[in-house]
Amino acid sequence: MFFPSLIVIPIVLIAAFSLIIVSVKILRQYERAVVFTLGKFQSVKGPGLVLLIPFIQEMVRVDLRIKVIEIPSQDVISRDNVSMKVDAVLYFNVVNPERAIIHVQSYLPATSMLAQTTLRAVLGQHDLDEMLSERKKLSADVQSILDSQTETWGIKVTNVEIRTVELTENMVRAIAKQAEAERDRRAKVIHAEAEFQASQTLVNAAKILSSIPAAMQLRYLQTLTEIGAEQNSTIVFPMPIDIIKPFLELFEGPPKMAVTNGAGRAPLLHEVQSDA
């Protein structure tokens, strides 16, 4: 009797220890347990200590932390028929463990495949310039579409970041030529606008100077002063008649009156007499 008891006791202890391992589960703070009783969903438990009925209940662990998935490089054709390769990064987490286990077979690859198809569909509706300049807006559009479609799976898409838009060498050269032509166009437009503004300023200045003759003479003398200050040189310039006209009148003296028979007008000396 003593010898069989030595064999039975260890077997019972091993069986009890196995039952404890099967029935007692410890979940971390970021984990939840989806418990099934005879294959039927019962509840979501955790974190902490979870007790299960051996051989009747089973559980599936669900991680609630944010997961990061690299979306592989996708071949995308833009709306303006430019082929490129685009890759992105997807951030999501499980907010409803029941739906994540029951409504989809495997939520991790399902979310990854859905992100790939959505990325190709969204980027294919935009031009190349929009992809390069409005990357944040496109990322937000992909995120909103994924979030609405994965809501039934208990998945929350928190962010989508488009990392790389890779073009072929021919397309890179074409874009460089286009950018160079755009810069040349802007330079010519700016130069033309500057010429227009300068001509308008000159017209306004000419109107002001022409209204006051003395201002024109002062400007003329100022220009001569600036020319003479640059270097020692002899400059021959025409003298405006308006400047020397007062001096000519002084040399001519006062006008003389011509005597006629009786009353009559007094012509100037330099006036030419008509035939008598």
Calculate Rg over CA atoms. 48 Å
Order of helices and strands: HEEEEEEEHHHHEHHH
Binned strand content: 15-25%
Oligomeric state, counting identical vs distinct chains: single chain
Q: Can you give the mean pLDDT?
A: 81
Distance between the termini: 180 Å
Strand order of the largest sheet: 3-2-5
Instruction: Characterize the largest beta sheet: strand count, sense, and whether it forms a barrel.
Output: 3 strands, antiparallel
> Ranges with pLDDT <50 over ≥5 residues?
257-276
Shape designation: rod-shaped
Tally the beta strands: 8
Strand-pairing-aware structural class: alpha+beta
- Please estimate the helix content: 40-55%
Tally of DSSP helical segments: 8
Describe this entry's structure for a reader:
Mean pLDDT is 81; it is low at 257-276. A hairpin with a 2-residue loop joins strand 2 and strand 3 (40-45). The protein has 8 helices and 8 strands; from the N terminus they run H-E-E-E-E-E-E-E-H-H-H-H-E-H-H-H. The strands form 3 sheets. A 3-stranded antiparallel β-sheet has the order 3-2-5. It has a 3-stranded antiparallel β-sheet with strand order 6-7-8. Strands 1-4 form a two-stranded antiparallel ribbon. It has helices at residues 2-23, 97-102, 107-123, 128-133, 135-150, 169-211, 213-230, 241-252, and strands at residues 24-27, 31-37, 40-45, 48-51, 57-63, 67-77, 83-94, 155-166. The protein is rod-shaped, with a radius of gyration of 48 Å. The relative contact order is 0.07. Helix 3 (107-123) crosses helix 5 and helix 6 (169-211) packs across helix 7. Helices cover 51% and strands 23% of the residues. The chain is an alpha+beta fold.
